[in-house]
Specification:
Largest sheet: 3 strands, parallel
InterPro entries: CheY-like_superfamily, Sig_transdc_resp-reg_receiver
CATH topology: Rossmann fold
Strand content: 25-35%
Number of strands: 3
Structural class: alpha/beta
Shape: flat
Helix content: 40-55%
Number of helices: 2
Protein name: Response regulator
Distance between the termini: 28 Å
Order of helices and strands: EHEHE
């Protein structure tokens, strides 16, 4: 099983592009957030193995 990931970025194009790329490699994205608070909430809720964030 590949690691689960949460992604956070305030730029919609970057968020979508990174999500598409990561999913194309077979990884599971548990959530996407557009701000730091939403990212924190996703991390607490899902407890992903990795998180990409620009915050």
């Amino acid at each position: 099983m590949k690691p689960s990931i949460v992604i956070a970025d305030d730029h919609p194009l970057m968020l979508r592009g990174l999500s598409d790329f990561i999913e194309s490699k077979g990884y599971s994205i548990l959530g996407r957030a557009e701000d730091g608070q939403a990212a924190y909430n996703l991390i607490v809720k899902h407890k992903p193995r990795h998180c990409y964030s620009r915050y």
